[in-house]
Amino acid sequence: MHYKLCLFNFVFLAGLTFGETSNYLTPSKYSLQLRTNGLQDVSSLLPGTTISIKKMITSLEGIRISAGISAGSSSSENSSQGYGTGESKQNSLSFALYVTKLKYAYRNKNLYLYYGYGPFGKYSFQYSADSYQQTTTNIFSGGLSGYLGVEWFFYEHFSLFTEYSLNATMQYSRWSSKINGSNLVSSPTITKNFNVNSNSALIGFSIYL
Predict the structure, then answer these.
(1) What 3-state class would DSSP assign to 18?
(2) Which residues lie closer than 8 Å to 30 by C-beta, 6 or more apart?
(3) What's the burial of 184, exposed, middle or buried (CB within 10 Å: 0-12/13-18/19+)?
(4) What is the mean pLDDT of residues 1-19?
(5) Eight-class DSSP state of 23
(6) DSSP code of 24?
């Protein structure tokens, strides 16, 4: 699905940029960007929405620093065999930081094709509780990201863009639980893993200063 979305955005922006344009618009030195998985993420600030500051080093190269934070809380009624019916709660908090070097590789009028790469780090905290136990999970992860995107300058100092990313991630997780009504705490369970995954196509909006 994300491949179709990425292709649709590319064709849409390309079609617009091939219209009559009297001026060629280029990135200025600094910009503020908002990237998200979709309009729903913008309105609710769900994971996947990041705010970035980008600085152009030359007319074709730049550095982007991005940060994303999200928090959530939910509750529901549940029943546990032998423990009756009670309320189940889940709370979560996550923070991510990305540093990316960007390179504009191709230009056609006000349409730019770019790529980028750089390190990232993430931290997530999760807490859940039910009628039987309380569980906490800490997740630390970091690695390298690669990006391929298209940016369209539709007006001076303003642009829309879409990009696709590939991540190589090393993750460390620490999990422990506590039985309700006792001082018994389980020994922490630690897991480590490495994976390579892709994200769905992101859409974004830039304001150049």
Answers:
(1) coil
(2) 53, 54, 55, 56, 208, 209
(3) exposed
(4) 46
(5) S
(6) -
Domain boundaries, the chain: 2-208
State the average pLDDT over residues 193-200: 89
**d(C-alpha 200, C-alpha 208), whole Å:** 25
pTM: 0.78
Answer yes or no: is pLDDT of 163 > 50: yes
| CATH top-level class of 2-208 | mainly beta
Distances (CA, A) of 127 to 37, 75, 121, 132: 25, 12, 21, 14
Beta strands in 19-157 (DSSP E): 30-36, 50-56, 61-80, 84-108, 111-129, 133-155
What is the token pair recorded at 72? Answer: 């959530």
User: What gap in Å lies between CA 31 and CA 97, rounded to an integer?
Assistant: 17
Residue with tokens 């800490």: 138
Distance between CA atoms of residues 192 and 29, nearest Å: 40
The identity of residue 201, as a single letter, is A
